[in-house]
Write a structure and sequence with these properties.
The N and C termini lie far apart (50 Å). A hairpin with a 5-residue loop joins strand 17 and strand 18. The protein has one domain: Metallo-beta-lactamase, Chain A, CATH 3.60.15. It is globular. With 343 residues, it is α/β, with parallel strands linked by helices. Helix content is 25%, strand content 24%.
Length: 343
């Protein structure tokens, strides 16, 4: 009888361990969808628990083109609502799609940096339309150091409303030697400088999205010390425009992979492309579009471009699937080309 009890107890322990390891091995990855909104931004992030964060909504109009592409990505991710919608800033290519998206899918909480700061009609109009949708719904105004509450991923706000974190993140804080040689950046009074920038972390994997943050604000994150540390995937800021993506920041980030959310005729500028392409430790640069301005010298190989033909744009996206151990796979939805990156 005792022997039987011992075997049963042993089996229970062994079975529990087997179930634990089997469960650990099948934990869903963090999924990131860089959605083609034709030179705007829309990035859908879904954690292992199915919680969702959408960063920006692309353009208005075009028969709800961008809203439809976001909903298609949500369906691919297996979600039926957007838990948090973060608007980085109030330029039309980021906030313009909110009314059409809200009509197509449920949005839980709206996240932004606060009131609009730019006295230009398109920006004021976009902000007004956005706030009309927000209405009395849940609304979270964030500041640097805040966290957007998720159980399956850590989402930390690094920049907002023209401010940035003041202290180094855990493991970061090393002096940045490039600070002494980088030329001063011009002041910027636009909404770009107000961008909400976030770092998404799951285990050893880190993903950075700074919206359209400009060079003068980038510098505050990495000079004199690098407050962020290194990242695994960097969403190239400002669609790959030269007003952002300073060498002093990109080199400090040391990304393994970069994704450029450019359009055929917007972003992907040769200067920014070269800075990202040449950053130390970069294994690959992926692009949402072939950049016409970049021409042959400043575009990656076609297999890494989601939409290489501007005349036959399929609206293809780039997906990242990341594990807690820091390994991740990037997939081009157009041609199903994929590549895995291991620590």
């Amino acid at each position: 009888m005792r022997r039987f009890s011992f075997v049963v107890a042993g089996c229970a322990v062994g079975c529990a361990l087997l179930m634990f390891f089997a469960s650990a091995a099948t934990v869903a990855p963090l999924r990131i969808y860089s959605i083609d909104v034709e030179g705007g931004q829309s990035t859908l992030i879904v954690d292992s628990l199915g919680e969702s964060l959408l960063v920006d909504t692309g353009w208005p109009g075009f028969n709800s083109r961008d809203a439809n592409r976001i909903v298609a990505a949500a369906e691919a991710a297996g979600i039926k609502q957007i838990d948090y919608l973060e608007i980085t800033h109030y330029h039309t290519d980021h906030v313009g799609g909110v009314p059409q998206l809200a009509a197509a899918i449920k949005i839980g909480t709206f996240v932004d940096h606060g009131v609009n700061t730019e006295d230009v009609s398109p920006t004021k109009d976009g902000y007004a339309a956005y706030m009309k949708v927000v209405g009395d719904d849940k609304h979270l105004v964030v500041k640097p150091g805040d966290k957007i509450p998720f159980k399956g991923m850590d989402v930390q706000v690094l920049t907002a409303a023209g401010e940035q974190i003041k202290s180094a993140l855990p493991g970061a804080g090393r002096p940045n030697p490039l600070c002494a040689t980088e030329p001063p950046a011009p002041a910027d009074a636009t909404e770009n400088a107000q961008s909400v920038g976030i770092l998404v972390t799951v285990g050893k994997f880190r993903f950075l999205d700074l919206g359209d943050l400009v060079k003068i604000k980038e510098r505050g994150l990495v000079c004199p010390n690098n407050l962020i540390g290194s990242v695994d995937v960097f969403l190239v800021s400002h669609h790959g425009l030269f007003q952002s993506n300073s060498k002093v920041m990109v080199d400090a980030l040391h990304p393994r992979v970069a994704i450029m959310n450019n359009g055929a005729h917007k972003g992907g500028s040769p200067e920014a492309w070269q800075t990202v392409h040449d950053s130390p430790g970069l294994q690959d640069l992926w692009q949402l579009h072939y950049s016409v301005e970049g021409a042959e010298a400043h575009n990656v190989a076609e297999k890494f471009i989601a939409n290489p033909d501007e005349k036959n744009d399929s609206g293809s996206y780039i997906e990242v699937m990341a594990q807690r151990n820091g390994n991740f796979t990037v997939v081009n939805s157009r041609n199903k080309f994929e590549k895995t990156y291991t620590k």
